[in-house]
Design a protein that fits this description.
By secondary structure, the chain is α/β, with parallel strands linked by helices. The protein has seven helices and seven strands. Strand 1 and strand 2 form a beta hairpin.
């Protein structure tokens, strides 16, 4: 009887200690997970295979322009809190701050989208013509970041690009689920127009975008 009682007491003590240890581990894990989420781009935005080492070659080939630095204000309320990876160099971009205070064209696309591939060179030509008057920023909406970089390299398009595998921007701005799609943002962050369609030329883009932003028509200037 004494032996049975002793064994029961020992077993109860072990279970109680294990329960306490489990709570501590859970708390530690939760804290670690929270800290990690604040310092890294979500794995859902890109594949696990797309490590910095794996992306080094595609990034060099794509040779993308830098993503924009934060603007002079807090930016569009709908985009606040969205932090994405700059596909060109892996840096983190606060999207609302990046587009704050400047007229912006967001071009939403994916590497497997044929109309997107047709449109991207026209978007790049439009960006070249309009110069610094308008920020033209592409948003890749698929987890395969390496494929996006290789597609841009193949097309010779060097526009700054955000990696958005979760399609956070489209969800925040209520963009229809089609690609390509273009979102025109005014300097105050309000949405001037959402265009769920493709463009064949820079002239077509200018005709759709410039009146919405009050930008002088530079489609024929050859800038």
């Amino acid at each position: 009887m004494v032996v049975v009682i002793a064994l029961s007491v020992a077993l109860w003590s072990e279970l109680d200690a294990g329960s306490g240890g489990g709570d501590e581990t859970s708390s530690s894990s939760s804290s670690s997970s929270s800290s990690s989420s604040q310092n890294t781009v979500s794995a859902r935005d890109r594949r696990d295979a797309d490590t910095p080492e794996a992306l080094a070659g595609p990034r060099a080939r794509a040779d993308l322009e830098p993503c924009p630095a934060p603007g002079p204000s807090s930016g569009p309320e709908a985009l606040r809190g969205i932090v994405l990876e700059c596909a060109g160099d892996g840096s983190r971009v606060d999207v609302a701050a990046a587009v704050a205070g400047r007229p912006t064209v967001l071009n939403l696309w994916a590497y497997w989208c044929a109309p997107c591939a047709d449109e991207l060179p026209a978007m790049a030509e439009y960006a070249r013509r309009v110069g610094p008057d308008v920020l033209v920023l592409t948003v890749h909406q698929d987890e395969n970041e390496a494929a996006a970089l290789l597609r841009l390299a193949e097309l010779g398009v060097h526009l700054p690009t955000l990696q958005d595998g979760r399609r956070s921007i489209a969800a925040a701005l209520q963009v229809p689920n089609v690609m390509p799609a273009t979102v025109i943002l005014r300097p105050d962050g309000s949405v001037a127009e959402i265009l769920p369609r493709s463009f064949a030329t820079a002239d077509e883009i200018a005709e759709a975008v410039d009146p919405e932003l009050g930008v002088a028509d530079m489609a024929g200037t050859g800038r």
